[in-house]
Amino acid sequence: MKRSPLLLLPLALAASAAALAAPAKNPASPASPLQPAAGQFIEDYCIRCHNDQDLKGSLDLTDLDYKPDDPANFLTWVKVHDRLQAHEMPPKGKPHPEAADLNAFVTQLASTLTKYQDDVAARDGRSTQRRFNRNEYENALRDLLDAPWLQIKDQLPEDGDAYHFNKVSSALDVSYVHMARYMSAADYALRQAISVQFTRPTTTTRRYYARQSYTMRNPGDDGNPDRQKFPVLDAKAQPDVLTGKAPMTVGAADPAVRDREAMGWVQSNYSTGFGSTWGVFRAPVAGRYRLTFSGYTIWVGPGGTRTPTVSFIGKTPPGGDPREIAVLPPEWYRPNFREVSPGRRYEPIAIYAKGGTNRRVGEFDLTPQPAVHSIGEVWLAANDVIAPDATRFFRSRPTGIPDGYTNPLAQRDGMPAVAFSWMEVEGPLYDEPEDSGYRLLFGDLPVRKSAAGEPGVLIDTVADRQLSAEDRRFGRAGGGFGRIPAMVPVAVEVISTQPKADAERLLRNFMAHAYRHPVAEADVQLFLGLIDQQLDSGLGFAGAMLAGYTAVLSSPRFITIEETPGRLDDWALATRLSLFLWNSTPDAALRGLAASGELHRPEVLRAQTERLLDDPRAARFVEAFLDYWLDLRRVDETSPSTTLYSDYYIDDSLEEAALAETRLFFADLLANDRPARNVVDSDYTFVNDRLAAHYGIPGVTGVAMRRVTLPPGSPRGGIMTQASVLKITANGTSTSPVLRGKWVRERIMGLDVPPPPPVVPAVEVDIRGAVTIRQQLAKHRADPTCAACHAKIDPPGFALESFDVMGGWRDRYRATAEDGDAELGFGKNGWPLDFRYALPVDASGQLPDGRTFNDIRDFKRLLLADETQIARNVAQQLTVYATGAPIRFADRAAIERILQGARADHYGVRSLVQQIVQSDLFLNK
Q1: What pTM, to 2 d.p., does this model score?
Q2: pLDDT higher than 60, residue 1
Q3: 3-state helix/strand/coil string of 880-916
């Protein structure tokens, strides 16, 4: 066995000897022998196992020099320090050093490691220069142009992540593709700001009737009544209208009756297509609108029939004769539109804006009594249409079998349905910010449509859309079957009588708002030269200015975060604070304090932190932080199995409620400074009726999310047992204690988990139900190369085994059905259930320190035995997010000072944020 070169370690540690010279006054620990003792310590207590022959833990200390500029080498020494400090090494049965010798070595090693990183930070800073991630860029343009409806994130490449977040330089590469996308996204945003000013329709209040909209009365495309809409008046059937013998609507001849006419349906909308939309309305311009709806719930009788051809209600085909329809035998689980009566319960309704993306903008509960429901003001993008969704209803999917799909809510005497009469839209609503984006770009200069042959820039508009006669007749402004027609490009020009003078004046003002620090004259001249060049080429004033503005918004001074090593100046501090708590650039108040040099004062910084946290824009922080800390952004990456979990499949209402729960829960911790221990366990959470039913919490009705106190002994409470997290840590078909255990250790406990050896295969879950995942992992852990890590990873995952792929409680695993032993019922998609309950779940386990637990409740209690570690993890996660740099070895003392500052407030989450903002980690690069 080789001798260790670590006897030379004193040379590497010499820099810290002066700091350790104080013990030299103690004759028992003189300074000079302390350095040789370091190498001798390794030789005496570590080399026996960690040598070139035994290689315990894959660590050979005989060949390990001290090379701190090598990241892998540095991390190895950190590992040595941590294992010794935690008394995990030397192991039982091996010679142990005296406590004084151990402490001396650990202290000296810590001092050496810390000094090296402190020297690097003094020279270069903790964080390295980075660009905006795509969320920050979108928010920056939204705030700069006062356009909260702007959607450009998806035009940019997906960001990487490092240390769990997309705020760290190593994850945010810059390529030609990035720069090209930044330029195209900026150009798009600028044109959107012009479009708002150019279009600027008058604010109106208009009522859009369900029977006026083609997509609200189109019966469907497969002859199945489950997918059809049907006419209703005062919760009664209208068979004559249904068969085309009477007009679809009385129209303006009888306004009172027209207000009561409704269209009903028994099926949920499709989130990807939305077959039922108020297609006759399209938002004419991006802005704020106030939406109101009239409707109620009904009960539809059984015995409907399917037809093999499509029937268009109220439409007469060419020739004037009603279409002949072949009819299949009646089926009790099909709706009979000739039997309609008042509803038997409320139905939760979600309202979506459908455009480039589908966004949920509001919700309410329809009741058996006709009522008017307002969702208040919402932001709509130009060309958005509105789609209502009865979220409890099923979403039929063709099965390829003769009986097709079955409505799971159908009973022998009928099924629930909803009926909508009208939607009322007030808007666009204008106030000062509505045209501030345009005024930032062009001031008071007018914009008009370009004449033929004149220069101009193309903008997309809705106002100039010309509908065909059939479109107008059937209300297809929003497109048939959920499709939305493309917007129409229009060339416009901004009128300037002094283009060169106006260009300089406008550019200087724009750059003063866009830049996050004083603007250098050289930068102004650079972009002004570009604008002048474009003007001289005959591009036109608007086009030339857009070229200059696009260049500014794609320049390094805008898209990168500029910080210099050492203490941040007030401008950089303002940027760091706003990126932390708003995920965007500083507002006028922060800029003003930066300009006056007041922001760095502790009392001012504290007040500004409170202001930013109390602002609605802090919701961006909550969403972005949770998207990466908890991986909420991945919630859609898996879908529940159509075989094992068809009761969850395409249940958007459950997934949306689960996401809302986690965001509301963390926002509550932040707003009310609740202790960080709530991350592990709490006596409350946030639910609506759908999520409460999923959790088995009684007494919750209605679609609105609300805070509820959990029943005694509930396994819920805290973040680990929320449905969003449990879905993210599963694959849609099965759960893995390994994946969930790794997630808990890293995201909740704050403990790093090394990657598995490349030669170790993944464990494939047996969905047949013959063996449990615990039994499979037992064989896996029998491999000595796997045992050490799995002893740490598996227990947290075992504690969560009582929760299925969507976070529902289970006592037994689901397995594929065999020989007709499937559970009775139908899934959300209308398919028969195709699973059975198999082997029992065992959620017990043992932690590496020997403590045992029987279930998730016990496991939470064990975690909370060390509340400080839970708070430490929250502080570390927040610090990485806030500073864009990982937590280094040398940062540990600063984290402990943050915890000390928040200890009196029981480690409240808001207190932790305040302590982080006041810390050296935040105030220095």
Answers
A1: 0.90
A2: no
A3: HHHHCCCCCHHHHHHHHHHHHHHHHHCCEHHHHHHHH
